[in-house]
Write a structure and sequence with these properties.
Layout (H helix, E strand, L loop, with lengths): L4 E2 L5 E2 L7 H33 L1 H12 E6 L6 E2 L5 E13 L7 H12 L3 H8 L6 E7 L1 H10 L4 E10 L7 H4 L11 H5 L1 H4 L4 E6 L15 E2 L6 E4 L3 H18 L3 E8 L5 E7 L16 H4 L9 H11 L7 E3 L4 E4 L2 E4 L6 E3 H7 L2 H11 L1 H10 L28 H6 L8 H12 L3 E2 L5 E5 L6 E4 L7 E2 L3 H17 L13 E10 L6 E14 L6 E8 L8 H4 L1 H15 L16
Parallel strand pairs: 4-10
Antiparallel strand pairs: 1-2, 3-8, 4-5, 5-6, 5-7, 8-9, 10-18, 11-12, 11-23, 13-16, 14-15, 17-20, 18-19, 21-22, 22-23
Helix pairs in contact: 3-4, 9-19, 11-13, 11-14, 11-17, 12-17
Length: 592
C-alpha cells in the first residue's frame, strides 16, 4: 500500500513505499522513452505512407489549393462594311464579381453595389449570401462604375477586364450583323453564323495563390496557353446603300403604314448583298426591345403573286411552248377553270405573251403555265432556286414552299403560274431576278467580302467574283424577259418606278396574304411588292421592296412598293458612279 510521504522541503511524493526513488525514476524514464520511440515510429510510418503511397493524391490536392487557373480573355473580331466602316466592334468593359465568404457585411455591401451599378438591392444581397467563393454581380460594367467601386474599397468585391460589343452605326444593318450575348458569343446574324471566325480563342494561365486564394505576384513562371483574337470580317454590305434602303423604306412605311416592310439590294453580276433593310428597325445597343431583330428577308416566306409571273414565262420560253409574240385569249377578265374562276384586274381580250407580263394578266399567266406543262414548269422553278434556301451566310434561312409536282392538284399549275400555292423568301426572289439581269446564271448570294487576321493583317479570304453558279435559262430567254420587264415600267403596272436618269426594268406584285392556318386568304390584307433591275440596258443592281398589309394610301405593288424601289435604285446608282442615261418612253397602259 502506497503512503504519502513528505521530503525535507515538505513537498508531497507519490513514490511507492517499497521502491527507492532512484529506481522509480529509471522506470519512468524508460516508459517515456518507449512512448517517444513508438510515437516516432508511428510518425515515420505515416510519413512513409504520405510520401510513398499517397504522394500523387496529396500533391494534386496541394496544387489545387496553391495554383489557380485563370482565363486570359481575347478580343472578338470586328465586323465592317465593304468600305471599311465599323458595323460592330468590341470595346473594353469590366465585370464585377464577389467572394461571398470575403464579404464581412453583406447587407451594407449590397446597398452600395446596387446604388452604384443600378441593380436591385435584394437580388444583390441574395447573391452575396450564396455558398461558394464566386458570384457575378454585374457583367459589362462601365469605367465610371468600376472606378467609384474601387474608391469604396468594398471587401470581397473584385473586378475583371471584359469586352462589350459596340455598334458605331447604330441600327444600320443591325438585323444582318446580329447580336452577341453577355459572354460575347453570337446570338443572331453574322455574329452567329460566323462565330468560328469572329469568336476569339481564350487563353489560360496558372498562378500561385495563398490560403485566401489571393494571387502571389512574382511566384515564378507558370504555363500559359496563348489567347487569339477573333478574325475581322468585312461584309459585302455597303453602309451608304444600306442607309439609303432604310431611309426610303422608312418614308414608304410612314406613308402606307404596313405591318412590316423590307428591301434587299443585290449586285446583279455577283449576287453580292449590298443592303438588307427591315422594318421595324431595332437598336442593337438597346437590349430592352429586340422584337425587330429578326431578318425577315431570309426568315419569312410569302406568296409573292404577280412578281413570280416572269419565271412562268421564262419556263415556257425555255420549253418552246410560247414566244414573246404568241397571242393568248384572256377571256375579258374572268376565266372559269373547272369549278374555279380566275380573274384579272382589268378586262383583256387577246394579249401577246409580252403584254401578259406588262399588264400582269393572271388569266394569261395561267394559260402560259398550262402550255408549259406541270413537270416542265416545276423543274424550271426549282432551277431558279425557288422553294429552297439560297445558302447565304446567315442563320435561320427559310426554304419556302414548292411542293413536288406529284403533289400538285388539278388547279396547282394555274395557281403557281401567277404566284400562288408557292412561297419563298424575299432574298430568294431577288436572287432569281438577278438571272434575268446577268444572262441566265443563278448564283449564291454573297455576304462576306474579306476575312482578315486582326493581329497580323493577313487576308485569309477575299471574294473575287461570283460563287460557282448554274445556268437557269439561256441568254436569249433572259434578254427577252428583260425586255418585257422594261415594258412593265415604261407602259405597264410599274410606272411608279420610272426614273428620269436611268432605265428601269421590273415587275409589280399584289398578293393576298395567306391565313396563318393555311386555309384561304386574309380579307383585305396584301403583300405589295416590286422587283426592279437597273440600269435596264446594263444591269448593276437588283432591288426588291415589299410591304406586308399596307393600310393607307393604296395597296397595289405599283403604287406602294415601286416608288420606294425607284428611289433606292436612283440613289444607289448615283453613289456607285453609274453614268445616267435617259430611258426610252413607251405608250402608257392602265396601272394596277
Amino acid at each position: 500500500m502506497a503512503v504519502l510521504g513528505l521530503d525535507r522541503s515538505g513537498a508531497g511524493s507519490f513514490l511507492p513505499e517499497a521502491l527507492p526513488p532512484s529506481r522509480w525514476m529509471r522506470i519512468r524514464a524508460a516508459l517515456g522513452t518507449a512512448c517517444l520511440v513508438l510515437a516516432f515510429a508511428l510518425l515515420s510510418v505515416r510519413l512513409a505512407q504520405l510520401q510513398l503511397v499517397e504522394h500523387e493524391r496529396y500533391a494534386a490536392l496541394a496544387a489545387q489549393q496553391q495554383v489557380v487557373g485563370r482565363a486570359i480573355g481575347a478580343r472578338r473580331g470586328d465586323v465592317r462594311d465593304s468600305a471599311g466602316h465599323l458595323l460592330a466592334t468590341s470595346v473594353r468593359s469590366w465585370s464585377v464579381y464577389a467572394d461571398p465568404q470575403g464579404v464581412s457585411n453583406p447587407e451594407a455591401t449590397a446597398v452600395k453595389l446596387a446604388a452604384v451599378l443600378g441593380l436591385d438591392r435584394r437580388q444583390v444581397y441574395s447573391k452575396l449570401g450564396r455558398p461558394g467563393r464566386f458570384v457575378w454581380v454585374k457583367r459589362q460594367a462601365g469605367d465610371d462604375e468600376v472606378g467609384f467601386l474601387r474608391r469604396l474599397g468594398l471587401e470581397g468585391v473584385h473586378f475583371r477586364p471584359d469586352w462589350k460589343r459596340s455598334h458605331p452605326h447604330g441600327s444600320v444593318a443591325a438585323q444582318v450583323v446580329g447580336l452577341t450575348d453577355v459572354d460575347d458569343q453570337g446570338l443572331s446574324g453574322v455574329e452567329l453564323s460566323l462565330e468560328q471566325l469572329l469568336g476569339p480563342k481564350t487563353g489560360w494561365e496558372f498562378v500561385a495563390c495563398d490560403a485566401g486564394r489571393r494571387v502571389i505576384r512574382g511566384a515564378g513562371d507558370s504555363p500559359v496557353t496563348a489567347p487569339r483574337d477573333g478574325y475581322d470580317v468585312t461584309l459585302t454590305i455597303d453602309a451608304f446603300v444600306q442607309n439609303v434602303a432604310q431611309e426610303e423604306l422608312a418614308k414608304a412605311v410612314q406613308k402606307h403604314a404596313p405591318e412590316a416592310a423590307w428591301a434587299v439590294v443585290l449586285d446583279t453580276r455577283t449576287c453580292a448583298v449590298l443592303a438588307m433593310a427591315n422594318w421595324p428597325e431595332f437598336d442593337p445597343e438597346d437590349r430592352t426591345d429586340i422584337s425587330g431583330s429578326r431578318n425577315r428577308i431570309i426568315t419569312d416566306s410569302f406568296e409573292f403573286g404577280s412578281v413570280m409571273k416572269p419565271f412562268t414565262v421564262a419556263a415556257a420560253l425555255e420549253a418552246g411552248a410560247v414566244t414573246p409574240a404568241t397571242t393568248i385569249f384572256c377571256h375579258r377578265g374572268a376565266w372559269k377553270v373547272g369549278r374555279r374562276t380566275v380573274h384579272d384586274a382589268h378586262e383583256y381580250d387577246t394579249l401577246t405573251v409580252s403584254d401578259i407580263v406588262v399588264r400582269s394578266s393572271n388569266i394569261g399567266a395561267a394559260q402560259i403555265g398550262m402550255r408549259c406543262g406541270v413537270e416542265s414548269l416545276h423543274h424550271r422553278l426549282r432551277l431558279f432556286g425557288l422553294g429552297e434556301p439560297t445558302g447565304v451566310d446567315l442563320p435561320g434561312e427559310a426554304g419556302g414552299i414548292l411542293r413536288p409536282a406529284s403533289r400538285w392538284t388539278t388547279y396547282s399549275v394555274v395557281s403557281v403560274s401567277f404566284g400562288q400555292e408557292m412561297a419563298t423568301t424575299p432574298l430568294s426572289v431577288a436572287r432569281a431576278y438577278c438571272t434575268f439581269a446577268n444572262g441566265g446564271m443563278l448564283y449564291t448570294p454573297q455576304l462576306v467580302q474579306k476575312v482578315t487576321d486582326s493581329t497580323t493583317g493577313e487576308v485569309l479570304y477575299e471574294l473575287n467574283g461570283p460563287a460557282e453558279g448554274r445556268c437557269v435559262v439561256s441568254a436569249e430567254t433572259a434578254a427577252q424577259i428583260m425586255e418585257m420587264l422594261r415594258g412593265v415600267v415604261d407602259s405597264g403596272t410599274g410606272k411608279g418606278a420610272r426614273l428620269e436618269e436611268y432605265p428601269v426594268a421590273g415587275k409589280t406584285g399584289t398578293a393576298e396574304l395567306a391565313r396563318p392556318d393555311g386555309r384561304g386568304y386574309l380579307a383585305g390584307k396584301y403583300l405589295s411588292s416590286f422587283a426592279g433591275i437597273a440600269p435596264a440596258d446594263e444591269p448593276a443592281v437588283c432591288v426588291l421592296v415589299s410591304m406586308k398589309a399596307p393600310s393607307k394610301n393604296g395597296y397595289y405593288g405599283g403604287t406602294v412598293a415601286a416608288p420606294a424601289c425607284a428611289r433606292i435604285i436612283e440613289r444607289t446608282l448615283r453613289y456607285m458612279g453609274v453614268p445616267p442615261r435617259a430611258p426610252e418612253r413607251r405608250v402608257a397602259a392602265q396601272d394596277t
